[in-house]
Every structure is written in C-alpha cells, then in structure tokens.
C-alpha cells in the first residue's frame, strides 16, 4: 500500500512530499532535482597542446630575466648568516666609540646653534631629522622594566631598535617600542670660561640640553627620518 | 586553607563572623596562633582602636592599662626613598632593627610606599613603574586594568642580596634616585625594643606624636542581649546567628561612634532615622580610643592585658581599624566581643576587602 508506494518513489521525492503539497512537490522534484545534471568529477582543464606549453615556458623565462635585473635587498636570515652588521669582538670597546661621541656632540652643537639654550619647536624639528649614531643615550622609561637604566653610545640606529655599547663593553640591542630614551648635549664652553676654569677650583656645571625621545614614534630608519615631518600625537599609553 | 584566585571584578568588602573560645592566657608567652590572635596580627597598619567596657570595669582597666603602660608613640618625618636605602638609617633600622613605615597618599591614586618587617612594598602607577625599572606584579582587579594599570613592587630588604654593590639593590637605588625621588611624609614606628644611639632619624627632624587614649565615661545606653543563644551555633540556625551578629555589630559600631541613637531616652522621628536601638536593658558604658600609627603587636598585647585585667564575667569589646587601602577608601577592621558570663568565649567580626 503506502509503504510500497514510498519504496518505489526516490527519497528526495518522499521528503519533498512531506514539506510541500503534492503538485508543488512534483514540480520541484522534476525541475530542480531530476533534470539538473550532477557532476561526479570536477571539470578538468582541457589537455594542453604544445603551442600553449611553449607560450607558458617563454613567459616564465622573461619573468625570471626581469627579476634577475632588479637587485633585491637581503632578507633577515641572509643578513644574519653573512654577519655584515656584526661588530667583531675586538671592536666591542667603549673607548673606540668615544671619539665618535665627541664628533656627534660637535655635530649637534652645530645644527642646534643658539637653540641649545632655548629649546622649542624649531629645535624639536631639527632633532627629529637629526642622526643619532654616536649619541650617548640612557633608557629612562620602558614597558619592559629590565631595560631601564641601560646607558651607552648608539652604534646602530635601525628601524625598530637601537644597538648600544655600554661602558662595560656590552653590546645591547634595545627595541624602540614602548621605550623612552634620554640624551644630553652639553652647551659649548666659551673661550673666557676656559681661562676661568684653570683659575678657580670650583666651577658651575655648564648647562646642557636634555632630550627625551619616545621610541614608539621614532620607529623609522635614520635615513628615512631625514625628510619626515613629525606631527604631535596624543599617546594612549603614556 | 583554600586560596581563591584574585577576583576579576570589583568586590565589596565582606564581614566574616567567628564564634569561638579563647584559650587560657599564659602571661609569659603571648599567643600568636589561633583565631583572635592571628587575625589581629595579620592586619598591617592600625589607625584606630576602640575599647568598650561597662563603667564598673573601668577602674581595673585604668590601673592596669592606662597608668601602668606608656601610650603608643610614633613619629612623622619627611624623607625621600633614597634616604631610607642609604647610610646609617639603612644599616641600623632596616638591617638590624625592625621598623614599620607608611608613606602618605591614597593607594589607588598616589604612589604609596610601605615598610613592614623589612619588606618594602611600592604601590605605583604606570608611569612611575615604567620609569623605576623594578619588576613587580599588576595591582588591582583584573577587569579594571584597562589602559592604565597599577603595579605593586615587593622587595625584601633584609635579604642577603640587598647590600650596596649588589645588582638588585643597585637597581633599587637607581630607581629611588631617578624615578621615585620626591620626598614624602612618612609615619614611622620603631617596633624593636632598642633604639640606635646616634639616632639616624634625627637628621630628618621627625616630629614625635603620642596617641594618648581618649576616655569617655558614663555613657547611658540601651543595651541588647549580648550573649548568643546556644542554638544559634548549631547548623540549622544560620539565619538566627546572622541576624543576631548583625544586630550586635551595628549596636557596637554606633556605640563606637558615640551616636545619640543608642542613648537612653532617644526619641527621633522614624522618618529621619529607621534605626531602633534594642531595648533589652540599659547600662553605663565607657569607651577608650587610641588613634594614630599603631602596630598589630600592640593591639594583640592590649587584648591580652584587657582579658587579664577585667574580672572574668564582665563583657568588653575591642575593635581595630586599619588605614584605608583602595580607591574607595575601604579599610579592614577586626572587632572582638567577649559576651558577659562566658568563660573565654568570643565573637569576632572581621571586615576585609580583597585588596
């Protein structure tokens, strides 16, 4: 009876019959299930002929030739393997970099000029594009507290970190993220002061300009920073 | 026993009620373990202590406590953290002696430093912590940390590594010199029995303060029944115990505040105040209060003295309140009541926050 009828009917028609009226069920079954082709295997690409294969090989060759003409920068692992930026063990001495530091002080005094005494916006703009290789920095504030107190001369200023050599001849790589660095540029002693220095035993310390750099905002290579205009941002984490 | 993890949302302070029996008091060995004594010593710095007695017992306490023993003293001094960590002060008071110090400020808002049993605890905000460079733990409820978390740094100054020249100590001195270098007002209390002879504190010109006890006598109050019924302590009567202890604690707190609501013959419009003092009886009470920078060992000693001075059947109540801790200004408190006619029984209310 009914069960025998159901056995003859396909399952899809039985299920449709439960949900729809018999006319609708039949229509849906014939249109959408019976007459629709069912692909058993995915359509494969047409077999390639020789001409297409030759064309593809030629394209690949021209691309490779173009790539070989463009020089690519070294990747990080290649750099590490070549050891181009490593400082040799004999060179890791603080005393070697002290003359560099004096050069940097001279360079700073030259670009700041009179603004070393007054500071202000002009000085800040010049400092933002200045180069800091050879500066004596101290880490003053950091999200990672073990970095606070590191003091030394900058020997490498890369995009995200500063490489610093400390007085105890240790090389430290300090990330710029979340760190505040402090630099000091002592004002030049004038000629008359120098004569007075020999005469009097006690001398007041010459004034110096103290600069604090927020590493978060400074994550650019020193070459890229030269033309960058810095705008003041309110930092959420300060 | 069970240590629960730090709460992730703000939790209001809770009051824990304990009913127990105080052991026999040995005069030579003051008890340190066990419920009323351990709770008293676990408080950190006590701001206020109140003792409530019936008027008849006042004379005995007056002779034994107030006249026989000197009032607790402490000093107020302005120093910077660097002064504490260097020189004779560090060698004498911190390494050899035992002092308690607390700096001024509110814990959730300013930078507060405290020193107890040689452990220096710094409660810092984000900027001070990042500038100091000392390793610490996050402070405060987890959910509230957000953009500006606060930090706690704990250092054991009596340890072997805390000597000038060692790396850890040098980092602390660097932090004290550069980041935490403002002078703050401290409350200082020397808990050891000896004072070093050229006093290292003298150069900072401390001001000595004595917390003399204030006595108010002959307070006529309406008294409730202070003795709990025996059934309260059985398991089925938890709500009865709860309502009894709440009523007694409320009454004791109002007596501490010397509120007119518990006085005899008080008539106030119930629209203004819904509190009704329990009219089980009336009595004359006296209240002795100390306010200042008190030590938990002093409060424990006071409890022992009161128990030995007072006749065995009289009741008394001792409450100690600490300095406020969090941003909301909650402090923790411990109130002990010995009911009348009992042999060493006590009820203790301990109000404690999670901070």
From TrEMBL, chain A:
Q: Where is this region: Disordered?
A: 35-75, 187-207
Keywords of the record: Nucleus, tRNA processing
Task: Identify the domain of life.
Answer: Eukaryota
Compositional bias segments (type: Polar residues) = 198-207
Q: Which GO molecular function annotations are given, in alphabetical order?
A: ribonuclease P RNA binding
**Which SUPFAM superfamilies does UniProt cross-reference here?**
Rof/RNase P subunit-like
User: Which Pfam families does this chain map to?
Assistant: RNase_P-MRP_p29
Give GO terms for biological process. rRNA processing; tRNA 5'-leader removal
SMART domains tied to this protein: POP4
Q: Which GO terms describe its cellular component?
A: nucleus; ribonuclease MRP complex; ribonuclease P complex
Q: What is the annotated localization of this protein?
A: Nucleus
Does Nucleus count among this protein's keywords? Answer: yes
* Keyword Nucleus among record annotations: yes
Q: Which family does it belong to?
A: Belongs to the eukaryotic/archaeal RNase P protein component 1 family.
PANTHER family recorded: RIBONUCLEASE P PROTEIN SUBUNIT P29 (PTHR13348:SF0), RIBONUCLEASE P SUBUNIT P29 (PTHR13348)
Name listed for the protein in its UniProt record: Ribonuclease P protein subunit
Look up and give the organism this protein is from: Lasiosphaeris hirsuta
UniProtKB/TrEMBL annotation, chain B:
GO BP annotations of the record are: endonucleolytic cleavage in ITS1 to separate SSU-rRNA from 5.8S rRNA and LSU-rRNA from tricistronic rRNA transcript (SSU-rRNA, 5.8S rRNA, LSU-rRNA); tRNA 5'-leader removal
* Source domain of life: Eukaryota
Spell out the GO cellular component terms annotated for this protein, sorted alphabetically and separated by semicolons.
multimeric ribonuclease P complex; ribonuclease MRP complex
Can you name one GO molecular function term for this protein? Answer: ribonuclease MRP activity
One short Pfam name that applies is: Ribonuc_P_40
Which InterPro entries does the annotation name? RNase_P_Rpp40 (IPR013893)
Query: Which named protein is this?
Result: Ribonuclease P 40kDa subunit-domain-containing protein
Q: Which organism is it from?
A: Lasiosphaeris hirsuta
């Amino acid at each position: 009876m009914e069960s025998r009828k159901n056995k003859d009917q396909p399952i899809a028609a039985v299920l449709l019959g439960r949900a729809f009226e018999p006319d609708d069920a039949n229509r849906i079954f014939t249109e959408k299930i019976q007459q629709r082709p069912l692909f058993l295997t995915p359509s494969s690409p047409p077999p390639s002929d020789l001409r297409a294969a030759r064309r593809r090989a030629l394209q690949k060759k021209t691309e490779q030739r173009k790539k070989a003409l463009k020089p690519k920068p070294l990747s990080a692992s290649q750099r590490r393997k070549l050891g181009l930026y490593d400082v040799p063990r004999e060179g890791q001495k603080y005393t070697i970099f002290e003359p560099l530091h004096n050069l940097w002080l001279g360079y700073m005094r030259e670009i700041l000029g009179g603004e070393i005494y007054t500071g202000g916006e002009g000085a800040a703009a010049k400092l933002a594009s200045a180069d800091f290789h050879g500066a004596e920095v101290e880490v003053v504030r950091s999200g990672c507290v073990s970095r606070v107190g590191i003091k030394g001369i900058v020997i490498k200023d890369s995009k995200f970190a500063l490489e610093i050599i400390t007085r105890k001849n240790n090389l430290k790589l300090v990330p710029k993220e979340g760190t505040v660095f402090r630099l000091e540029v002592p004002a030049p002693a004038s000629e008359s002061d120098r004569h007075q220095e020999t005469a009097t035993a006690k001398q007041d310390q010459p004034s110096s300009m103290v600069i604090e750099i927020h590493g978060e905002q400074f994550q650019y290579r020193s070459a890229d920073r030269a033309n960058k205009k810095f705008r003041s941002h309110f930092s959420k984490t300060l | 026993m069970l240590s629960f993890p730090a709460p992730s949302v703000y939790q209001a302070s809770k009051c824990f009620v304990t009913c127990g029996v105080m052991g026999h008091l040995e005069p030579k060995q003051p008890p340190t373990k066990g419920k009323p004594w351990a709770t008293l010593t676990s408080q950190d710095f006590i701001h206020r202590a109140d003792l409530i007695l019936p008027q008849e017992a006042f004379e005995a306490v007056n002779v034994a406590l107030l006249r026989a023993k000197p009032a607790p003293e402490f000093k107020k001094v302005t120093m910077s953290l660097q002064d504490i960590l260097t020189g004779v002060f560090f060698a004498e008071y911190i390494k050899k002696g035992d002092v308690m110090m607390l700096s001024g400020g509110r814990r959730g808002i300013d930078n507060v430093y405290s020193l107890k049993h040689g452990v220096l605890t710094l409660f810092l905000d984000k900027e001070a912590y990042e500038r100091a460079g000392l390793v610490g733990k996050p402070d405060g409820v987890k959910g509230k940390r957000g953009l500006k978390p606060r930090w706690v740094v704990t250092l054991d100054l009596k340890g072997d590594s805390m000597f000038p020249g060692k790396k850890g100590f040098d980092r602390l001195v660097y932090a004290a010199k550069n980041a935490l270098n403002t002078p703050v007002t401290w409350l200082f209390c020397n808990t050891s029995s000896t004072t070093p002879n050229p006093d290292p504190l003298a150069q900072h010109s401390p001001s000595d303060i004595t917390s003399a006890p204030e006595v108010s006598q002959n307070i006529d109050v309406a008294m409730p029944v202070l003795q709990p019924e025996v059934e309260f302590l059985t398991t089925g009567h938890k709500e009865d115990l709860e309502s009894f202890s709440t009523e007694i604690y409320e009454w004791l707190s109002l007596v501490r505040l010397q509120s007119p609501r518990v006085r005899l013959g008080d008539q106030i419009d119930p629209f203004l105040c819904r509190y009704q003092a329990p009219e089980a009886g009336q009595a004359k009470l006296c209240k002795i209060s100390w306010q200042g920078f008190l030590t938990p060992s002093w409060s424990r000693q006071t409890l022992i003295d009161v128990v030995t001075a007072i006749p065995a059947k009289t009741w008394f109540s001792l409450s100690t309140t600490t300095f406020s801790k969090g941003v909301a200004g909650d402090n923790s408190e411990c109130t002990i009541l010995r009911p009348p006619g009992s042999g060493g029984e006590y009820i203790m209310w301990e109000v404690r926050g999670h901070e």
